Each structure stands twice: as C-alpha cells, then as structure tokens.
C-alpha cells in the first residue's frame, strides 16, 4: 500500500507544471467533488492552539449536526486519551470555537449541548447571519409542534393565465376575447389580539424570626462578697490601708478616696492573712489596667475577689503520705512454695500437715 501511494504521488508531482520549490512542502491540489469540509486558516494555522486541539476542531467541524462529540466518544474514536481530548476541548472553548452548556430535558434529565463555530471572529465582529449545518439522520421521531405556535397562512388561489394565441395567416374577424375571471385576493389573516399577561401573584414573604431581647427585669447574678479575714486586727487594717493608699505611686489611674480605701481594707487584709506578700498584692492590682479606667474602686474590688489565693498549706499537708507496709515473700522449708510472712518457716498447708502428724 505504501508503494502504491508513493507511485501515485510521484506521478502527480511529475504532472505539476512549472518549477517546483527545492525545499519545503509541495502541494498536490486535486479538487474535491464530494465529502469535503472547508476549514479556515485561522483554525488550521492557529498560533496558540495545540496540534491536538486543531485536529479535534477540524474533526468536529466535519461532522453533521447532532453527532455526539463528548470526551468519551472522541476517546473511543482517536488514540489520544481523555486528558488530551479534554485539554483540546478546553483550548477550543477558550478561543471561541466551542461552547458547552448544560440543558435540562424532560423527566429531569440533563444533557450537554455543544455548539461549534467555524468563524468565531466573524461572530464577534457581527454583520453575518450564522447558519446551522445539516443534521445527522436519526431514526427518532421528530418532535411534535405545539398547536399554539403554528400560524396557518391561507394559500392564494391560482390566477387565470392567458395562453398565447397563434397569429392568424389571413385577415379575419377578430374573435371575441375570453372574459377573465376576477382574481381572488386572499383575505387578510386576522391579527390576533394581544394576549393578556397575567401579573405574577406576589408571594408573601416568610415572617422574620422575632428578635429576642432580654427583659429589663432579667435576674442578674449576685455580686460576690468582698473577702474578709477571720480576725481583722489593727495590724492587718494598718497594712491594708497603707497598701491601698500607696497604689497611686505605681499606677496613677488608681487614685482612691478615703471611703473606697475603708471599703477595700477587708479584702486586702484577707490576702495578707493568707500570707500573700505586699509585692504580690500590688502586682495583682496594678497589672494590665484597662484604658481608660473609669471606676478604679470597682476594678480593685473585682480583682481582690476573683484573684483571691487559697490559704497556704501546713507542714503536715505537704508531707508525703506513707505507703502501707508490704509483707515480704518467704520460701516454704517443706514444699518450697512462696508465701507472704514476716518470719521464715512453713506455708499454711505444710503447717497443717505437721499439726496433724503431731
């Protein structure tokens, strides 16, 4: 077969008139009489499309309308895989040659509608009416048209046409002309009146969920009481009062009145009673102050209550708990079994035997 093709091309090349280019491609052009497709150079010589995309585009353009051109169909037709075919179709879509849309059919089915344009540039420029190509023959019945969309146009009756008469050879009395019947003009089709358009019935909006706001009389959590020492001695009162009055030296926002100092003294005394140092109390009350600080006394009350440390444990509380003494293992002198006992000797079974023997 290769030899026949080579001989045919050799004979065709010899029949080309004129000089032949020394290199490059030489075209042997034979006009087609049937089964051919006109492909534009904008597709065949596209500068950005890949060779697979150009081939797929030419193949799709050569198919009649209605032919399946999905990825599965093209993969079964060509040796390229699904990945290359899918990439080629995406390239054609990106350059306007191909468009795929999802359409919903009857009975809830969904199909892919593929539209191929042989000149996307002309469609963008406008001025040309696109023509749908011939469809592939299918045995499926044609879809029935809805009666409402068919407009019947009455056909006019044929008019009477005069036949030519031969010229008379001799002079004679002219024959009477035949009376022509009047041409029936088709009655104008009555123009249907405007179809009343029903206004869409407004759909009532779903009521919004009511916004629930807390009632003004909602119960609030009771404020925790300020901690107090077991015994407020004069020494604790003096130390707590001095610490509170000295806070403004470390944080200028903590300026307290005498009434506020007297109110907060029991809380500081409770800290001191639990062996908290003055530096620890001062750091707890002055660290990370909010800005701006509007109510310093309330802030100190909250921190003295919420950050109150537990009492220090005693010496006995910190002592490690003693483990219960464990009875060691002993080996029986008679049967050499292991048993627990503080003193060596015989196990329970051996002792019973010795007692019976005695």
Protein described:
By secondary structure, this protein is mostly helical. Among the domains are: 41-125, Arc Repressor Mutant, subunit A; 234-287 and 295-306, no CATH class. It contains 13 helices and four strands. It has helices at 2-14, 41-44, 51-62, 71-77, 82-94, 120-125, 234-245, 247-250, 258-273, 278-286, 296-306, 315-318, 348-357; strands at residues 98-104, 110-116, 329-331, 338-340. Strands 1-2 form a two-stranded antiparallel sheet. Strands 3-4 form a two-stranded antiparallel ribbon. Strand 3 (329-331) and strand 4 form a beta hairpin. The radius of gyration is 55 Å and the shape is elongated. The termini are far apart. The relative contact order is 0.05.
Give the helix/strand layout.
Layout: H1 2-14, H2 41-44, H3 51-62, H4 71-77, H5 82-94, E1 98-104, E2 110-116, H6 120-125, H7 234-245, H8 247-250, H9 258-273, H10 278-286, H11 296-306, H12 315-318, E3 329-331, E4 338-340, H13 348-357
Antiparallel strand pairs: 1-2, 3-4
